[in-house]
Automatic annotation (TrEMBL):
Keywords: ANK repeat, Methyltransferase, S-adenosyl-L-methionine, Transferase. GO terms for cellular component: cytoplasm; nucleus. One of its GO terms (molecular function) is protein arginine N5-methyltransferase activity. CDD domains: AdoMet_MTases. PROSITE patterns: ANK_REP_REGION, ANK_REPEAT, SAM_RMT2. Residues 184-463 form the RMT2 domain. This is RMT2 domain-containing protein. SUPFAM superfamilies: Ankyrin repeat, S-adenosyl-L-methionine-dependent methyltransferases. Residues 432-441 have a biased composition (Basic and acidic residues). Pfam families: Ank_2 (PF12796). It comes from the Eukaryota. One of its GO terms (biological process) is methylation.
Length: 463
């Protein structure tokens, strides 16, 4: 982004607008585009005039999708960034045509102070939004009203899976200007996802994948490196010696003085992390999974027959209700992992609140989750790394972060979710084979060149 934004032609609006309205709209648009140029040219006097006196719209985008905030991030002007955010109506998280936020522009230009200012704004805004969502949720308003409010949110930040955060189907879930609700997406509406069919197959690199009805990756083989490191960090320090013994041997020893190991995984997918957790032969291994196709896949692959493994066939919210009603026995879990699909950050945040009750009192008890929050943008990823850590700290959990170089572990690049040819093995429980040819329909959602390495969270209760 070393050159100035290209010149933009302001076209006259057409349609049913009255001439006066069209002229006014044209004038307002021209002012906003002029502001972008003024910020890019570092014309402080004109920038202040357009923002403070003309009240130019700071969120308007030019032909390449840049707002005035993108221009300020490019120049590195912290003063302009503050002015646009505090005195104007700039939006910190708007992406340009390439998916770059203003913060991503600042990061790419090594404009550190500008990036830190935008990062602070993002953290402040998202923490405030979480407070407002909590107040909204507790106010007793109807589910319909709550859903409408969620639709108004920026779905690029909401979901706890990277493909959804990329806005894979965000637009399809929004309420239109006329008030009609568009068709819901499997990628961002949990009820729609649970009612859809899944396909279990392999991608063009031979890695196993589970695809939803829209072709979005529910779980992919490239996640293996992440899951391996997560299971190792959760279990190895305190329970590493269990790997050398069988479940039967350990079960016998646990009748004596050996400490038990109880693990819970919320969201089975392909069972990748469950496979690594099984290396430690946990005393109890609870899997919470609601999707019937995933449950059928688990049955076909022998998971229901493994010693100590039990499936709760429902959502984690169903499980908590059953726990509260006494239909499920309370167990203090030594390891808890959370990796659901088509849920939003608000759901993950709500799950955080349950951890003091779910985790055991062992000092070795650990919690982790799949951190794909905002994984299409360096700024969004940094914002949600900080926001999630702050929310965990509020309930008494300390978080340590480590990086996983997924591509370096030899599992292939991890930007694509496309399937291989129709005859690929492992179609599995859904009973359907992917009919696309190799590489067709592949979509990128993790921009590793921008986001960097995966950040693995490991959380523990502070006593």
């Amino acid at each position: 982004m070393s050159s100035a934004p290209p010149p933009v032609q302001v076209s006259n609006p057409t349609g049913d607008l009255a001439p006066a309205t069209a002229a006014d709209l044209d004038e307002r648009l021209a002012l906003s585009l002029r502001l972008i140029d003024a910020v890019y040219d570092r014309d402080d006097r004109l920038v202040q005039h357009l923002v403070l006196e003309e009240h130019a719209e700071c969120w308007v985008q030019d032909a390449q999708g840049w707002t005035a905030l993108h221009a300020a991030a490019h120049t590195g002007s912290v003063d302009h960034i503050k002015l646009l955010l505090r005195k104007g109506n700039a939006v910190w998280s708007i992406p340009d045509n390439l998916g770059c936020t203003a913060g991503d522009i600042a990061f790419s230009m090594n404009n550190t102070d500008a990036y830190e200012e935008l990062l602070a704004e993002g953290i402040r805004s998202e923490m405030l939004r979480a407070v407002l969502e909590a107040a909204h949720s507790s106010s007793g308003e109807s589910d319909a009203a709550s859903d409408a409010a969620d639709d108004a949110d920026m779905t690029a930040l909401d979901a706890s899976r990277p493909d959804v955060e990329a806005g894979a189907s965000a637009a399809s879930d929004s309420t239109t200007a006329a008030g009609a609700v568009a068709q819901l997406s499997t990628a961002s509406d949990n009820a729609t996802f649970l009612a859809s069919r899944l396909t279990f197959t392999h991608d063009s690199r031979g890695q196993p994948i589970a695809l939803d009805a829209e072709g979005n990756g529910v779980m992919m083989g490239w996640e293996s490196g992440i899951m391996h490191q997560t299971a190792r960090r959760m279990c190895e320090p305190a329970w590493g010696d269990r790997r050398d013994k069988s479940w039967a041997e350990l079960h016998s020893e646990e009748e004596g003085d050996r400490e038990k190991l109880r693990v819970m995984n919320v969201g089975f997918g392909l069972g990748i992390i469950d496979t690594y957790l099984q290396e430690y032969h946990p005393t109890q291994h609870l899997v919470i999974e609601p999707h019937p196709d995933v449950l059928a896949f688990a049955r076909e692959n022998g998971w229901y027959d493994k010693p100590g493994v039990r499936f709760y066939e429902g959502t984690w919210k169903d499980y908590l209700k059953a726990l509260e009603a006494g239909d499920e026995e309370y167990v203090g879990w030594d390891g808890v992992y959370f990796d659901t699909y088509s849920e939003h950050y608000a759901d993950l945040h709500a799950f955080f609140q349950t951890l003091p009750d779910l985790l055991s009192t062992s000092p070795n008890a650990r919690f982790s989750f799949f951190h794909g929050l905002g994984a299409t943008s360096r700024l969004l990823y940094d914002v949600y790394t900080s926001v999630s850590e702050m929310h965990l700290r509020e309930i008494g959990l300390a978080t340590d972060w480590s990086e996983v170089d997924v591509a370096g572990e030899g599992v292939g690049r991890w930007e694509a979710t496309g399937a291989s040819s129709a005859g690929a093995p492992g179609a599995g429980a859904a009973g359907a084979r992917d009919k696309r040819t190799e590489g067709e329909g592949e979509k990128k959602y993790w921009r590793e060149e921008m986001v960097g390495r995966y950040r693995l969270p490991l959380c523990r209760l502070e006593f």
